[in-house]
Amino acid sequence: MLDTTGTPPQTLPNAPGVGYKPQHFAAIMEDPAPVEWLEIHAENYMGDGGRPLAQLRHLAERFPISVHGVGLSIGGADPLDTDHLKRLKHLCDWLNPASFSEHLAWSTHEGFYLNDLIALPYTEETVTRVADHVAQVQDILGRKMLLENPSSYLAFAESTYSETDFLTEVVARTGCGLLLDINNVFISATNQKTGAIDYIDAFPLDHVGEFHLGGHDQDTDDTGAPLLIDSHGREVADPVWALFDYTLSKTGARPALIEWDANVPEWPELAAEAARAATILQKAPA
Amino acid sequence: MSRQSEFAQAILNPDLPVPEGLQNPEGAPAGKRFSVYRNNVAVSLSEALEVTFPVIRKLVGDEFFKAMAGVFLRQHQPNSPVLMFYGAEMPAFLEGFEPVAHLGYLPDIARIELALCRSYHAADTPPLDPTALQAIAPDDLLKTRLHLAPPVHLVHSKWPVGSIFHANSSGDTPPTEMHPEDILITRPEFDPQVTVLPSGAGAFIAALIDNATLGDALKQATITSGDFDLTETLGLLLSAGAITKISKGT
Ligand SMILES: [Fe+2]
User: Fold this and answer.
1) Which residue in chain A has the smallest CA separation from B22?
2) B213 is in which domain, residue-wise?
3) What's the CA dihedral at A221, A222, A224, A230 to 10 degrees?
4) Do both B47 and B127 map to the same domain?
5) CATH number of domain containing A245
6) ipTM score here?
7) In-domain check, residue B109
8) The whole model's pTM is what?
9) What mean pLDDT value characterizes chain B?
10) Which domain holds residue A173?
């Protein structure tokens, strides 16, 4: 269990943040409202210098930063990549971000990185593996991490845990926090024909340190059933906003991020999404 | 084979069957649902290659590049999640990729694009104050060593790849005849620059990279070229912030 006595100097505010894109640098420095914090993908800041790190240093002087890893492969059957852990540690040590998060998924196998967040079966074996890996990350980084729920497209016959029970168990074993991606909940519930509200009701909400809100694409599977794809390439869908509103009625305001990673819009459109999140956050119970 | 091995193989090779035990909500085989992973992996890796190799893409065309990226990514998966450095095998891949055998200069264009990418992310080091060089007594000058900044790279080519690169990135006139070129990549502040080097300068800078003294580098350059201009080349390096340090050599 992680010793969390040494708390980081900054935490994410219970306000909207956005996934940082370099093309928005000037706009953010001029007038970030209503955005109060930024999230970066850790892997994009693992060079030795140049513009990316220079921009990040400027941003970190003004905003709390959340470091969001996309490549650690916490659910991978192989041991965690120690080189990558070192790179994460180096980044977190100099930046001292307000938060570090990663995904309940795998992406690296036998040394090859597939660049996608691939689903895991939820079994005794995988809950032990994930908990061990989360504990190792927290140990090496010397900080608590948040683990994010994935979007799922299919189910594993061998699963014995529900996803919410699986996450609850990982939290119990490691003391980690959770990043609740509301869009992923909606995608998975639609794709698996389960209830999104039921998922939220079963989720260990006390441990949520951050929300994600992103856009998805609509497709269909071989049987014509809806198949939602986690694309982060458009505005947040209305039912996802409604689910966010419902969740906040239970949790109160928490840090909430707009994720827009593909077909990235001009700053005003992204800021408008953040403003919509701000409106919902403001009327949430304290 | 382990579950994840089977999964990974099936993602990379669409001809393989979808692994057993992956289901839709009715408990039937996942079918097209598994293709989401196949598509995400292929598209995202192909996009990463587009970011690193925009000039290769322009030279071969968008559709051809996508098809070629599909072949490349199935032969060379990234060996790290730091995707900005993905594609290091591209020059060797292009050398052996039959459909582009008639474009002999492509591998060297890929070398330039890889160097640009590494240069963009290289460490920041303050450039040398040009007066530091003038302060050295002429007798000592040939014994000094010039240390080049981390973003500096050199590409030797038997093709006019610098001119081809500029013609396809900033719209310069394409070269009318084939000739060798040495290309220097520097990063004055944050944006890497591609410079076609004057005669002998490639050999001179290659010697500096190998930690030769200024005297030895000069010798290399004059062996290679009868009209190597030391002042011009030093001026080019200094103005691009390519030199970080001088040290007295022994
Ligand atoms: Fe997310």
Assistant:
1) A156
2) 123-250
3) 10
4) no
5) 3.20.20.150
6) 0.93
7) no
8) 0.95
9) 95
10) 16-282
